[in-house]
Write a structure and sequence with these properties.
single chain, alpha+beta, Aspartate Aminotransferase, domain 1, 6-stranded antiparallel sheet, 4 helices, 6 strands, about 25% strand, YdhG-like, Iron chaperone
């Protein structure tokens, strides 16, 4: 979590900071083999040098990016969870609960789907 310390410290809203820290901490504990890092000024987790999931903080939501393939694969579940999404990210509103089960599925999917991936992003 030290990797994210500076990023988290820059989040002005204490509730947004706490929520983001909770999500990052949960991933760190649940997936200890993932490498936490900051790239493109955003917190993310990688596995064997390939992107697994990334985050960004916005005024109204925490944005989650499991790449387009992850969004497409979980589109129905994302909507069922009450989240809105684009082709590249899921928006978890600050006033909505985090669906950790869905987050876990998205991370596990990317770990398995990208097991043989030798590039940072999918081609």
């Amino acid at each position: 979590m030290e990797v994210f310390g500076e990023y988290l410290a820059r989040i002005d809203n204490p509730q947004h900071r706490a929520r983001t820290e909770d999500v990052m901490g949960w991933i760190t504990k649940k997936f200890p083999n993932l490498l936490p890092k900051i790239a493109w000024n955003q917190p993310m987790f990688t596995d064997h040098g390939t992107f697994i999931i990334g985050f960004s903080v916005a005024k109204h939501h925490l944005a989650v990016s499991p790449e387009r393939v992850g969004i497409n694969h979980f589109s129905d579940e994302i909507v069922q969870a009450g989240y809105d999404h684009t082709k590249e990210l899921v928006r978890i509103r600050w006033d909505s609960p985090v669906d950790f089960a869905l987050l876990e599925k998205m991370i596990e999917f990317n770990i398995l789907d990208k097991a043989d991936c030798s590039t940072f992003w999918r081609k």
